[in-house]
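Marked as duplicate of an earlier ticket. Keeping the data here for the record.
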Amino acid sequence: MTHAARVLRKGVRRVLWWQTGVAIPVGVVSVFLGPHQGGLARFLAALAGASIAMLGTFVLAYTIGRTDDKASPAQAQLWLYGGAVARFFLAIILLGLGLGVFRLSPLPFLIAFALGQMAYLAPGISSEL
């Protein structure tokens, strides 16, 4: 494994920890700030929103793993662009399913998803490259 791949995987691991750390407090706050009924549903909606962000991070980790020194630079670039497109469509489809089909509580669902995406900014991916 190259040094760049090790650094990127370490960064992805940090992002996953931040996303997990964001999901639970958003769920707990949504339980206590909403009406007494449906607290568990709001908590689960927050977990579902953060799970979508975490699934995108897993896809990113997979594409980083595929672009390691096994492929040519052109193939690595295709894997990374394909992974970005897959993450984009995966997020849109799962957000649509959560809001439209499963009718999850929108506020904790979207807040947890947005904060899960912001978790990429919190630790960042180290600039050791």
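See parent ticket for discussion. The mean pLDDT is 87.
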